[in-house]
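Per reviewer request, we include the raw input and output of the structure prediction for the construct analysed in the revised manuscript.
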Amino acid sequence: MHCFSFDIETVPDVEFGRRMWGLEGLPDDEVGTAMTFLRQQQTGSDFLPLHQHCVVAISVALRSGDSFRVWSLGDEESSEAEIVGRFFDGIERYAPDLVSWNGSGFDLPVLHYRALRHGIQAPRYWEVGDSDREYKWNNYLGRFHWRHVDLMDVLSGYQLRGRASLDQTAVLLGFPGKLGMSGDKVRERWLSGGISEIRDYCETDVLNTWLIYLRTGARVRAGPRNSRRYERATPQ
């Protein structure tokens, strides 16, 4: 059984901003500022729509049999297309169970748009039972399926008012939480060349997510002919 805990970090897609609003000639930092300012004017929040994000880091924690490893995909010079491609290649290769914190609401939709942007094929990820019947009732896209477990969704009972942050949930359980950085600092670090810090921060989030997942007592057991029986996560 393979299980991926994953997390992404993003910055404004300044190439999109230049094309969409005619901002050619402006440096990246000013384009990003213009994008967030426009969003603030339109909605009262400077958080960009998901299709306007560019992925700069993807970190995963992989449990495969008795082994466990945490790392960031690619290297510090890797392009967005490469790291997004590596993520979906991992799904194609391992067909893992995915574990995330708000992955359904943020990480996966962003990855959908970026895969579309770069022409990345991901047949195993998009499988819903047409080619493999095992995926009909348990696939990566179904909100209430268990091939992807969004811990924030599950622990909140799928209720908006029940949601908690990863940081506070980790601290609640005695885990490290965020160490010296937060999501709102990613763009600043990216502009100053701090990709190493961003990758470290992303790996910390992945590890916190994995530890919370273990605390829920979630279990996936292999069955006959490689089928799986999924048991709901029950807090312990």
